[in-house]
Amino acid sequence: MKISAVARTNVVTCSPDTPIREVAEIMIKKNIGSVIVVDPAKPTGPIGIVGERDVVKAFAAGLDPSTPASEIMSKLLVTIDADAHVAEALLLMREANVRRLVVTKGGELYGVIALKDIVYDIPLLKNHRRLFHQRKNINT
User: Fold this and answer.
1) Which Pfam families does the record cross-reference, listed alphabetically (predicted)?
2) Three-state SS for 31?
3) pLDDT tens digits, 69-128
4) Residue 37 included in any domain
5) CATH number of the domain enclosing 51
6) Which of 51, 102, 108, 138 could bridge to 44 as Cys pair (CB 3.0-4.6 Å)?
7) Domain that holds residue 87
8) Dihedral of the CA atoms 50, 54, 55, 58 (nearest 10)?
């Protein structure tokens, strides 16, 4: 299965100067685990990623909430092409020790794929999840 079939394409982005307080608020409001930092001159050009762990570390270290995202973002972006196979994504995640990959198509930002996106798409787990919810509804 291609990554394009699983990746989330409604990518939430911010600029490098977005305050980390705002990044955290976006993550909470949108119920997401990361925000892609893009070059303001090229909105389809990712330059970093801020994950929930980055935000937690920043606040735990006592950083000012107005600190720009560029101060805490991971600049080492691990990217994968939208046409790559999901198995390649899993291998890349393991090799790079990351839980999310930035998905590109033609060098442009296309989406994000997280380990949980892949796991939730496994047919066996989909069936198990459906049965679990059916059983839960019967018991209530």
Assistant:
1) CBS
2) coil
3) 999 999 989 999 999 999 999 999 999 999 999 999 998 999 999 998 888 776 645 555
4) yes
5) 3.10.580.10
6) 108
7) 3-115
8) -130
